[in-house]
Design goal:
The chain has 3 helices and 29 strands. The protein has about 400 residues and is mainly beta.
Length: about 400
Amino acid sequence: MRAASLRWARLASAGWLGLLPVVGCVRAGFEPRDRGSACAVDRGACDAGGSVLADATPDAPVRDSGARADRSGGADAGAGDRGADAAGAAGTLTLVTSVASRLAGIGQSLARDGNTVAVGVSEGEDGIELLDLAEPASPRSTGLLRTDLAPAQISATDNDVLGLHLANGRAYLATYWGGLVVAEVSAGVPVHLGGLDLPGEAWAVQVARGRAYVANHTEGLAVVDIAVPTNPSLLYQLPLSGVTQDVQIVGTTLYVAARTHFHVLDLPPVGPPTVVGTLDMTIHDPTGTVYEVWSEGHYAYVVSKTGRRLLVIDVVHPNAPVVVWSSPAGSLDYRGLDGSGSRLYVGTGVRGAGSIQVYDLSQPSAPRLLDELSTGAAIYELAATRCGVVASAFDGRVRVASLQPCGP
């Protein structure tokens, strides 16, 4: 987390990586997000491949402590029978490996496309690192791009990569005080193509149909034409209630997490997005900040960072979204989330303490906590698969965890 005094902190192929879709600068701790892959727009492309982490070797050496969290404490889903889970009916998260980034800093964001995973780094050597996860137990670094150095540098300072999206061999980076950066990544080594300075702060980005939609913090939503990647241009700047932290595209719908508000926007083939529905989240979470959003079917799932909880929003009627479920408050900040099929993963933590939670979404309106894996550092972003998850963290390490048995 940056800014004048913000020096605190914010998966998978046709084989195992085919599991991942994917995943607010509180001036005393960066807390961005991302689930930036083509999978966020077309989940079928992510889950078509089979058993992501199911192919990981069970006895692979573990390079990170990862003791399991105390089930009696911390964040509790508050729904369903936890006793049934204890009997082993639902699934267990196991750490496969933990690897350090070649860039010094916080693992702020994460995205994946096939076997390629991009990790966005902040609060140090700002930039992205590409990892090849063809062998999930042994991720291999293939290249770096620094956003705090030319040619990718946009702002004089604070070019932290808070949001990432990978699609069609390109990476799209939301770089905090900088703006939008576009890079070619098809050869495994990121190459800068172009960039656009944006007003305010750039926190997250999603791409669809030749446009990039950037969570532009207090400036609302920025819509950028990326048809010419070497020369992206601003099309529209839409003010929105709240502070825009995160965006997710599902088909022609854009969901926006804006701290105190949740928005549903329609994305027409031409013209600017239009706000269809807005929900005042302070009614349901008065002390919270809605940080990230992930959607499946008729429901959107959001995490409240300081409210330390997971909330479910029914969006079957886009013009009238309504909160239908909320977990009890946990003991750590809720920072990121991502899902695949009937499994939802949530990252929690404050600096040197954190965990990955996995929920069962068999009843989408009432998630049930299946397991929680202690990670020894705050988890900032995740990319989920049917059989596991990849996560970036405060300590700059990338963790790969498997879920057994795999979700439906």
